[in-house]
Amino acid sequence: MELIKNLKWRYATKKFDPNKKVSPENLKKIKEVIQLSASSYGLQLYKVLVIEDRGLREKLKAASWNQSQITEASHLFVFCNYSNIKDKDIDDHMQLRANMEGIDVDNLKGYGDFVKRKISEKADHEKHQWAARQTYLALGNLLVACADLKIDACPMEGFEPERYNEILQLPERGLNAAVIATIGYRSKDDQTQKARKVRKPIELLFEVK
Length: 209
What we know:
The chain is built from nine helices and four strands; from the N terminus they run H-H-E-H-H-E-H-H-H-E-H-E-H. It has 209 residues and is an alpha+beta fold. The chain has a single domain (2-205), classed as 3-Layer(aba) Sandwich (NADH Oxidase), CATH 3.40.109.10. The chain has a four-stranded antiparallel beta sheet, sandwiched between helices. Helix 1 (2-9) packs across helix 7 (124-149). The protein is globular. Its cofactor is FMN. Belongs to the nitroreductase family.
């Protein structure tokens, strides 16, 4: 299985080569893989910002513990969950589903009402955590796609969400920065690439009942 070989190749890249860029063709493939990510009820209650602007990334670097990946990588991905989930978000998804399946949206009313009810049962902080977790599913797809394309990536929680929200003006758009990732190509000076990949043995990680 080529994917396993590629996943063994990948690592959380700490130093990127700023002179190497991900091609538009590969960037399009990564976006499509993210688009195909699983999400609860299929709602995809998030937006993914792809930051290329150098000036903006300098500002974000200061809100990312000054980690060099933010400015040296080819692209910075910011996964943003919806801050306030509305009934309209569910209605919009049901309309999209009806359009794509070629059915009347009224046929999905029962399911839509079920989804609304289940979400409304969550406390506000639970909704926020639930929505943020959906972005991690998309992040996982990005990492797998990059490994398959032999593009380096680094998932990052080392940033200040509140400052990201302010710099990117996310609250005005009903969004919250949940997790970020940088992609590009490793620098030959990145010592992390020489480290052995450490993972739990399969017999310790899995338990069959």
